[in-house]
């Protein structure tokens, strides 16, 4: 378990993807750097664009860039990685949560292409919801490109309010928690 100051301990959780593949959801740690490189190698340009809202070539991602994904401020951020069992590799996807200093947690998800449509994105978003509730956040929010219909559909199914941001090509998805939930 890892302690993020705004979250408390986050336990590991194992489950099976829709295709039966055993997976483990656990905190992302600095030794996971090689796994994180592999995650990006398994993502199409479209998947990376839908996560970061900009095009970038994997070949131009530097060691320093990748290190920033692994070495983050654990007092206000949390990253949970899904890895294949029993080996703990490859990394299948990641969900990140950031405490903006208010009662809102922002989340973002990246799932490597070979594991799309297997329930992994749903599992990662559901974990973000559970972590946000446990941290007593008032709201969980994220941003989704208008073209990312699978993510918009998933967020709608999970009860998120969806609002188009004028002129941005983005939707803001937000889930408001009842006080004391």
Please give the structural blueprint:
Blueprint (H helix, E strand, L loop, with lengths): L1 E3 L3 E3 L2 E4 L5 E6 L5 H9 L3 H8 L10 H8 L6 E8 L6 E9 L4 E8 L8 H15 L4 E7 L3 H9 L3 E5 L4 E7 L5
Parallel strand pairs: 7-8
Antiparallel strand pairs: 1-2, 3-4, 4-5, 5-6, 6-7, 8-10, 9-10
Description:
The protein has 181 residues and is an alpha+beta fold. The protein has a single domain, classed as Gcn5-related N-acetyltransferase (GNAT) (Aminopeptidase, 3-Layer(aba) Sandwich). The chain has helices at 33-41, 45-52, 63-70, 120-134, 149-157, and strands at 2-4, 8-10, 13-16, 22-27, 77-84, 91-99, 104-111, 139-145, 161-165, 170-176. The protein has an eight-stranded mixed beta sheet, with helices on both faces. The chain has a two-stranded antiparallel sheet with strand order 1-2. The longest helix has 15 residues, at 120-134. It is globular. InterPro entries: Acyl_CoA_acyltransferase, GNAT_dom. Residues 23-178 form the N-acetyltransferase domain. This is N-acetyltransferase domain-containing protein. It comes from Gloeobacter kilaueensis (strain ATCC BAA-2537 / CCAP 1431/1 / ULC 316 / JS1).
């Amino acid at each position: 378990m890892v302690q993020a100051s705004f979250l408390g301990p986050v336990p590991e959780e194992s489950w099976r993807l829709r295709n039966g593949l055993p997976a483990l959801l656990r905190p992302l740690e600095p030794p996971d750097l090689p796994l994180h490189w592999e995650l990006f190698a398994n993502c199409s340009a479209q998947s990376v664009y839908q996560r970061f809202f900009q095009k970038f070539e994997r070949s131009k991602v530097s060691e320093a860039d990748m290190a920033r994904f692994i070495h983050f401020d654990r007092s206000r951020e949390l990253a949970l990685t899904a890895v294949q069992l029993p080996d703990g590799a490859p990394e299948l996807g990641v969900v990140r949560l950031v405490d903006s200093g208010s009662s809102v947690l922002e989340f973002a998800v990246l799932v490597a292409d070979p594991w799309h449509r297997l329930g992994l994105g749903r599992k990662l978003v559901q974990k973000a919801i559970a972590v946000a509730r446990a941290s007593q956040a008032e709201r969980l929010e994220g941003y989704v490109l208008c073209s990312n219909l699978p993510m918009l559909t998933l967020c709608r199914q999970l009860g998120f309010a969806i609002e188009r941001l004028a002129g941005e090509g983005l939707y803001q998805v937000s889930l408001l928690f009842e006080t004391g939930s």
